[in-house]
Amino acid sequence: MVQQRTPVRGRRAAVRRVVSRAAVVSAAPPRSLSEKIYTRIKQDILACVLAPGEACTESQLANAYGVSKAPVRWALAALSRERLVSAKPRHGYTVAPVTIEAVNDLFGLRLILEPAAARLAAGRADIALLKALDIKIGAGVKAGDRRSEQRWIEVNNAFHIEITRAAGNDRLTRLVTTILEECQRIMHIFISALDRARAMTDDHRNLVAALARNDAEAAERFAREHLEHSRQAVMEALLDNATVRRTNLVDHRARTRRRA
Predict the structure, then answer these.
(1) Using alpha carbons only, what angle is made at residue 210 by residues 216 and 164, rounded to the nearest 5 degrees?
(2) What SS3 class is residue 98?
(3) How far is residue 115 CA from its own chain's centroid?
(4) DSSP H or E stretch at residue 56
(5) pTM, full prediction
(6) What is the CATH number of the domain that holds 37?
(7) Do residues 162 and 133 make contact, with C-beta atoms less than 8 angstroms apart?
(8) Sign of torsion over alpha carbons 22, 187, 234, 205
(9) How many CB atoms lie within 10 A of CB 186?
(10) How many angstroms separate the CA atoms of 129 and 10, rounded?
(11) pLDDT beneath 70: ranges in the chain
């Protein structure tokens, strides 16, 4: 299959568009102050500005975001329904921890959906765009720079969403986009280990090559292998993180008590 060349300027514009589609939250403007504060707090949770397991109160957040308690209270109620925060009577709120169980659940879903999407995308994906995104991913991130980390995550998500979009199923694309959004906090912890993050590009290149030659079986296999490698690397990064280890020990003890 002959691939059409896309002008450099056109590729750059396409990269910007697809990264925008993979942003942390919907681009639709919030309709109220409460929704704006909800969006800002959610972004900070997903970017680990508000760290997993961190305690906070309505007063603290109101001061931090320069608003009254009312919009913060509305935002926290919405975030509680999404299980991004949990309320503690008389003690405020706690940002949801990152648990090994949650990581396994999310990657389990991705292993069901994304290899199937890659099979369907073979011969249909925009190869020039995927290569351009992969170059950005391979450039890595600046250690300790949250903006750089967030940009890397958005580009990596855009790579995976673009493959899913090429499968031609809008519902599948929306579902994968939602799962990738949930994975963002995990990825912020993961990319603190830069060598692991850069190693992902080898898997990406194999996947893109299979898509380019319209090899559906290989595309599905490489997508699955990539996700398995990613899950293993993420688990290693999480287990290297003292806060995550402590959180999972507490979570394990709590589940053991409930079973007893």
Answers:
(1) 65
(2) coil
(3) 17
(4) strand 55-56
(5) 0.77
(6) 1.10.10.10
(7) yes
(8) positive
(9) 23
(10) 9
(11) 1-30, 143, 192-199, 241-260
Which residue shows structure tokens 């949250």? 146
Q: Alpha helices, DSSP H only, in the chain?
A: 8-21, 33-46, 58-65, 69-81, 100-121, 127-138, 146-166, 170-182, 184-190, 194-212, 216-239, 242-259
- Amino acid code (one letter) for 39: T
Same domain, 107 and 230: yes
pLDDT tens, position by position, 152-181: 899 999 999 999 999 999 999 999 999 999
12 is a domain residue? no
The per-residue pLDDT for range 6-40, each reduced to its tens digit, is 454 565 565 666 565 555 444 445 579 999 999 99
Residue 89: which domain range?
33-95
Q: Which two tokens stand for residue 34?
A: 């409460």
> What is d(CA 166, CA 125) in angstroms, rounded to the nearest whole number?
5
